[in-house]
Structures are given as C-alpha cells and as structure tokens.
C-alpha cells in the first residue's frame, strides 16, 4: 500500500465515500478535507488507470476536479485506451541544420520533444497548414457543464467552475487551434480530462476548429493521435481520426547491422541479478529516457509515468541486468535509480547507433544470443520450451522453478522480437 492508498483509506471511511457514491451516483469532496491527510496534488492526479489508488480500482471509481478547491468521485469512465498502429511507417523529417539550442539526440522531456516536433514541421503536417505555438502552461477552465458516462452506462451531469488546467502546447493556424497533451513514453491510456477541459475552454474563446491531440515521444518516434469530440457536451464522445508517426531522418538501420553485432559480440558472465521479467523492451527504453533527465525513486516512476508498482520493479531490475541502470541510497535513505556511465553514453547517441548499442547490450547475454542464433539458422524464433532449454544451459542467477523459466522466456521472445523489428521501423 502506498501513502496515497493509505490516505484514501482514511478519507473513504471518514466521509463514507462508497455509501455516498452508491446512493447518489457521485461524491463531492473539498480539497481542504483531502489536505487533512495528504496534499491534494498528490491525491487527485492520476494520469493513467494504473495510477489509481487501490480502493478506486476495486470499486470502479475515478476522480475529476470540478473547481480549484473541490473534486467529484464517481464510477466515471475517464480514460481513453491508446492503440499504437505498429504497421505505420514513421514519416522521416529533417532537423534544421542551423539550430543549436535543440539537440535531437537529447529529447527526454515533453517540452523538448514538442519544440523539436514544431521546428521540424511535424505540426504543419498534422494540421495541414502553417502553425505558430501560441500558448502553454496553466490557466483557468472558466465555467462549463457536460455529461459523462459511468462504467455501468449511466449518464451523469457535471458542472465545472474555474478548475485549473494545463496545456503542454497550443498551436494556431489559419483555420485551426491544436491542443496537445504530451507524454515522453509509450502509454496504455490517458486521462481524457487533459484534452477535454482545455477543448471546452478554447472552443468558447476562438471561432477556429479546436483539434485535440494526444502526443507521445518514445524510442525516437513522435506519435500524434488526432481526435475529435463528436458531441462537445459529452466527455466520452472522443473519437480517433488518425495516427501520424514521425522520426528525425537518420542513417537507416539494416538487418546486416544486427548480424554484424551478433557475429562479433562476446557474451559476458551472467550477473548476480534476477533474469529480467520485462517483456516490452520499448518500455525499458522509455525508462532509460526518463532517467536521462533525473534520477528517480521507485515512487517517482510509479506515480509520474505509466508504470504500476510491479512494472517499476521489473523494469528497473531489467535495466540493472543490462548494466544500464544502477541504484543508490540518497541522503533521505530513499532508494534512487540512475543511469550508469554506459547507459548515459548510449542514450545520448543518434538513433541508429543508440539502438545498435542497445542490441549489443542484450546480445552480451548468452540466452539472447543463442535464441537469435536459432532464428538466423531456422528463419523462425524457437518455441518457448526450446527457449527454456537454452536458458537452463546458461547458468542464470537464482532461476530455479520451471514456471519461473517459462515466465522469463517471454522476456527473451519480447526482446529478440524488438531487435528483429528495428530494421522495419528505423
């Protein structure tokens, strides 16, 4: 249980929140009541479903701000699933050669990724016309009302009065105003409120078409999810129009490059670190990117990014297994994660070199190299029982039971597939 879970346990009991939601369909709570147990900003901002406190998940609840000092809790359907179209080939764009204040090899904050997207013309390609960045930051929502659907399909009416909103980027063209909510990682879902509240505010303030866009920068790919609200008065009327992916033009990564690494790499001795259980290497690259900007605690990673508690443990451990992440105890006796010297070097490289060095860091480990060898020999990946057979020969640290071998075999498959897909994407 996290501090947030503990604090909500107290509030649920103190204010009979569950009983009120069941009886009235929702419960309004004041920020000052939340503050009696913990800071409201830590208690009410859940950008992804995985961030919701235990009690909220158990009872199908979510929370929305309705003013600067109050929130509403109910069985609201507030998140939108994000489905990446992995068959989409990223559009290659050139980075302006004369710019010195943006480093395209160091775009590990949301703002730097958005600035880069703008100067390389991505915004214009998404909007179809020349645009200017006109706004960003915090502002007031003013007053509006809307209907929201509950998870049981019921309809609730909500009124918002001067709630605080934040816009990562606002871009105006001749006929449109594009509002962008940005994340510098691959995500499973996002909080629709982050687009809906700004959409309602600016729909009243400009006669131009307001275009809500969710943006992610992950593994050097800029993904734009362009939406529309089919009914401006309905929170759940969000509809995806298109996804557009971009990448900064670079030297193409070929299968021959991977073969060259495979042929020259000399596997290292297995470290005394648990063999990884982290199936998505894309997510691990995201985590490495987050650590470029700052050292982070387990709680930082879990609260601020789309990782749950278990995933945070698995992916930090996987980074340590590869020698790219290390941990230390800070002055507050808190466990912190940081990039190793090798991790820092790799994450500062240009796209092709970065992904080839990451490939080497995987193939440095015998189980992965042997599985890739069988792929090159047979043209298909070995089945899971065969992968387990290979793993058992490699003297893995602290992997004993058959079920553990089979779970870890999924990581081997996931990481080798990531390597083999690189020439298709990059």
TrEMBL record:
Domain DUF6997: 74-247
InterPro entries hit by this protein: DUF6996 (IPR054265), DUF6997 (IPR054266), DUF7226 (IPR055650)
Pfam families xref list: DUF6996 (PF22515), DUF6997 (PF22518), DUF7226 (PF23871)
Keyword Repeat attributed: no
Keywords: Elongation factor, Protein biosynthesis
UniProt superkingdom: Bacteria
Positions of the DUF6996 domain: 5-73
GO MF term (any one): translation elongation factor activity
Annotated ranges, domain DUF7226: 283-423
Protein name: Translation elongation factor
Organism: Bacillus yapensis
